[in-house]
């Protein structure tokens, strides 16, 4: 028997059209395409109902041959037909073939079972780590195997060629329907997994930054669920809040970096600071950042707190406005501003002593005193750093001594002056907490 031509039906041509249809060809295409799962319904209605009863006895053979053809054509499906894989493969093929018979007999037949079967098949493709290509290829190959049997059986049963062509057209549209439903299930599972994954990582980040630290067991369990390897140390990066932050590109920092760009206090948790920090600035996409110190994981909240403090000092003009502020390079300023009321109290006598000077005099005297303190009272070194004559330094220091009295001779007072010098030039409403 020539299986390439049955009852006047050119099987090769029909299979070619089936392949075109599966790639998005003319059947079922166009802007007026019906919703998922109903493209083939009008075509089934034009098939003679009696054909279903005449072909239904072939159901077991159709299912078996379709499965064999699928496993031969799709590498991902070349595995024992057992367990969850066997359940989904056999169940999907059986649902698809049996629904064909139902549609031929009654085009308005309930579609809920096969819709659920192929939506579930699409979900399982994602959960098993396969792409939709495998499932779509399986549908096309299975449909081709079924069509070959139907076309051969149609000749033997004396079914007119025109009727078989209508069946073929219905199968083409049915392939589209099956793929659309399966893709919907796949994308649903993908979206749910992505949402759950991101939600677990946000919960993990919140747990890591909690104060007091969360119980170790809770952290371990949530880290495992979020596919995050617990590090020995971390660094927290606080990002400047921007009203357009939702429209900025997400930094490409790697899957192991925990990211919160949605809240009013956006930040990152870097589990490998030594490797990740050197490339940080280039990945921030225009965001200003403050990098907290590298600390043990249990102290992550402290790293975040210092980074927040550094960002606040940048906004207030205490620290310079740069793309990335490093806490490790500004520890003295962070220490000084840890208790601003105390800083204001300690700095007040110096500021009061300089109050009657003009702005220009105050800056000149303050810079001389700061440099003198840094050089431990070395006049020549102070003059060199200020690019003035040593005699000028002596003159200014005499002026400062008149303003401050015996404080310059007191080691403790000199120490307090040095650690509060950043606050000397700030107005009262800036240093006040």
UniProtKB/TrEMBL annotation:
| Annotated coiled-coil segments of the chain | none
Question: Would you say which domain of life the source belongs to?
Answer: Bacteria
Q: Where is the PucR-like N-terminal domain?
A: 44-209
What InterPro entries does this protein's entry cite? CdaR-like_regulators (IPR051448), PucR-like_N (IPR058663), PucR_C-HTH_dom (IPR025736), PucR_C-HTH_sf (IPR042070)
Q: Which residues form the PucR C-terminal helix-turn-helix domain?
A: 367-422
Under Pfam families, the record lists:
HTH_30, PucR-like_N
This chain belongs to the protein called Regulatory protein
Supply the source organism for this entry: Actinokineospora spheciospongiae
Its organism's taxonomic lineage begins at:
Bacteria, Bacillati, Actinomycetota, Actinomycetes, Pseudonocardiales
């Amino acid at each position: 028997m020539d299986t390439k031509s049955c009852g006047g039906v050119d099987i090769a041509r029909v299979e070619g059209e089936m392949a075109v249809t599966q790639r998005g060809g003319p059947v079922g295409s166009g802007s007026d395409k019906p919703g998922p799962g109903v493209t083939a319904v009008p075509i089934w209605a034009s098939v003679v109902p009696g054909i279903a009863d005449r072909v239904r006895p072939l159901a077991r053979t159709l299912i078996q041959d379709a499965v064999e053809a699928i496993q031969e054509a799709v590498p991902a499906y070349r595995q024992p037909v057992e367990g969850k894989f066997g359940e989904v493969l056999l169940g999907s093929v059986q649902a698809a073939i049996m629904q064909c018979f139902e549609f031929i007999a009654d085009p308005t037949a309930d579609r809920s079972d096969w819709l659920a079967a192929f939506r579930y098949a699409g979900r399982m493709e994602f959960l098993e780590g396969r792409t939709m290509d495998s499932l779509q290829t399986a549908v096309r190959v299975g449909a081709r195997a079924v069509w070959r049997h139907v076309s051969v059986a149609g000749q033997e049963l004396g079914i007119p060629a025109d009727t078989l062509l209508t069946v073929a057209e219905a199968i083409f549209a049915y392939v589209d329907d099956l793929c659309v439903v399966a893709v919907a299930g796949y994308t649903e599972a993908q979206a749910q997994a992505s949402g759950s994954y991101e939600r677990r990582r946000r919960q993990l980040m919140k747990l890591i930054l909690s104060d007091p630290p969360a119980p170790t067991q809770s952290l371990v369990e949530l880290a495992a669920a979020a596919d995050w390897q617990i590090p020995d140390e971390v660094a927290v990066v606080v990002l400047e809040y921007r009203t357009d932050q939702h429209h900025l590109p997400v930094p490409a920092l790697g899957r192991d970096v925990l990211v919160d760009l949605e809240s009013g206090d956006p930040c990152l948790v870097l589990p490998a600071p030594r490797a990740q920090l050197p490339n940080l600035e280039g990945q921030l996409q225009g965001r200003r950042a403050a990098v907290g110190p590298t600390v043990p994981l249990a102290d992550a909240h402290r790293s975040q707190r210092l980074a927040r403090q550094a960002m606040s000092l940048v906004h207030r003009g205490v620290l310079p406005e740069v793309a990335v502020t490093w806490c490790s390079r500004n520890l003295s300023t962070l220490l000084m501003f840890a208790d601003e009321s105390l800083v204001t109290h300690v700095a007040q006598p110096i500021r009061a002593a300089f109050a009657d000077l003009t702005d220009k005099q105050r800056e000149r005297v303050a810079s001389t005193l700061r440099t003198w303190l840094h050089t431990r009272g070395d006049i020549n070194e102070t003059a060199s750093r200020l690019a003035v004559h040593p005699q000028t330094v002596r003159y200014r220091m005499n002026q400062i001594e008149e303003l401050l009295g015996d404080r310059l001779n007191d080691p403790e007072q000199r120490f307090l002056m040095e650690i509060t010098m950043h606050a000397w030039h700030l107005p009262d409403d800036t240093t006040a907490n």
